[in-house]
Amino acid sequence: MDEALLGLFPVTAEVKDNHLSIGGCDCVALAQEFGTPLYVFDEETLRKSCRDFQDEFSARYPETQVVYASKAFLVRPLVRLVMEEGLGLDVVSGGEIAIARAAGLPLDRVYFHGNNKSPQELALAADGGVGRVVIDNFHELGLLEGEAQRVKRRLDVMLRLCPGVDPHTHAHTATGAVDSKFGLALEQWETVVRAIPSRMLRLVGLHFHLGSPIYEVEPYQEAIRLVLKFAAKMTKEAKSKFELLEFSPGGGYAISYVRERPAPPFSYYAEGITRALLEGLEENGLPRPLLVPEPGRALVGRAGVALYTVGGRKDIPHVRTYVSVDGGMGDNIRPALYGACYEALVANRAEEEPNEMVTLAGKFCESGDLLIKDIPLPRMSPGDIVAIPAMGAYSIPMASNYNAAPRPAIVLVNKGKPTLWRRRESYEDLMAEDVG
To answer: How far is the C-alpha of 372 from the C-alpha of 394, rounded, in Å?
Structure first.
């Protein structure tokens, strides 16, 4: 068994009797019990990631509060888990606020992001007591001030800034460059300062997010330098009456998807970010704010594994061999959307050596529905179970009902016990909202 490949799976992954096991549960047995496609999350990996991330940052900068970026994956049981681990929640929609509230998370632990928050969403945030609204533009600044007046309560806000730093990632997932729909440009600082004085809004901090996944710490360090310089300008502007109480370098922390490109450990990001923050605070004469990193993928990505059942096969001599599975772009759009790469393991023959090159194809009616192109695997037959690691982030939230395909079930595994987190959609579910 290739240990480097197994290392892409959750920390509890092991091979027993030629079968892949996660959280003490046989993946083949899970596929038989719950059907496929099936998303399996390992509780030990989830909790370890939450604790390790918080510990690495807090050891270097005690004034740290980790906030989970829930767009990576969100269901009510996961909200309860991250709440138990002491994390806050980063949300980007009214729907995510509703899930957090339904799960019992105190909304003062929520940071509300988004570049076009609707009046209804801002009203929901104001009524529910969301802890921080991260202002993305001047339009919503005015809307939120109106909501604060309506609820007769001063609301805490942060500003999302666009530092103009290249994060060296895919263009579709880069958000901190100058040409981005997100955030206020640093060059607008005078306008920003004039917009801050408000009886109903209290500016408590600054935020930026560069994109994801980011494998290097240097973009964070450059953005920190620029944003702290901006904060010093704001502090010196008498009209702003601004004090930097909170500072967020956003998320984007990478995970390992393939053996050839391992992601840095959490300690690498923690060391680079906190060092740049401390140096920048000293250089600009600023007090130590609360540090609010917002990992999403980094906490849930490795914890999730997708299981598929093999079906048809198409051999094109001297060109390519396609092996089709019962999922694809309906449950994981990332390969088709921006060329995401994965590895795979045949879960019911986990110890067998690869002996052919194949392309794992999805079942959806699109030529671009390919999960993995040209991967060496043992020769597969219909009924084999394929396991793809590092599927815990963004696959499920971006899933669709394309071709009227029901979305897959999700199970949590821990110490040999599977717990259903979300049942598989039925055909009746697909029609539940139809009228007539």
So the answer is: 17
